[in-house]
Amino acid sequence: MKVELFNDHFQNYKRYQIAKAQLVIADIPYNIGKNAYGSNPKWYVDGDNKNGESELAGSEFFDTDKDFRPAEFMHFCSKMMKKEPKARGQAPAMIVFCSFEQQFPLIELARRYGINNYINLVFRKNFSAQVLKANMRIVGNCEYGLLLYRDKLPKFNNKGKMVMNCIEYGRKEKDTETIHPTQKPVELLKKLIELFTDPGDVVIDPVAGSGSTLVAAAELKRSAFGFEIKKDFHRKAKGWIDSVMLREKEIDLYGFPKSQLQAKHPTLF
Fold it and tell me: Which CATH number is associated with domain 3-31+68-268?
């Protein structure tokens, strides 16, 4: 199992000679510009609208969003997905988290690169962060995505059960640092990775952000490769990934995470 996060743009993938993916997962920029925090409590001081707007009000998440080119992204994904196998039930796939409006252009764009089929995905939260729309009668509690695949149905480890396209989003783990403003819960990513890959398969995240996709893959014994162009995100994500890799290695060696227990209970060692 190999897990590696590159501080580089996914366009430069050729220099790293990484293995082809059974599953590509990407949370692409939603391109919502200066309204990025419009559905995030951070728009207000301490997350409370009674305190007035914070320094993040009217700002964008990152300056790289405007540089994201969907066609280059889709070209990368089409090149890095494994070729269609002859056997049934082994084909690769990609999952793209996106805004509702982005779904339809992405479906058409994917077809240009031979990724001809899709299934809409809805990720249901048990909370809503639309603090700026608190007076609305209906507030959003869903995120959207697409499962994209070429011609053959992708690998499904569903044990003969139906897979609903409305999937519980869950909450970020309490003991996990928030590295990235659009960070996805590890348990959600693990659910998706388990469904579409086997242990030893390769997972690729072209826009890795917090590195949560790579963390989820490592915990499931999948190889994973990611690209993150922002240095600060890369540094924090790599630290998280390295700590998880050490934990997994120690569990394999000793049956327990030795370093974590030493840090919490130094008198025991």
Answer: 3.40.50.150
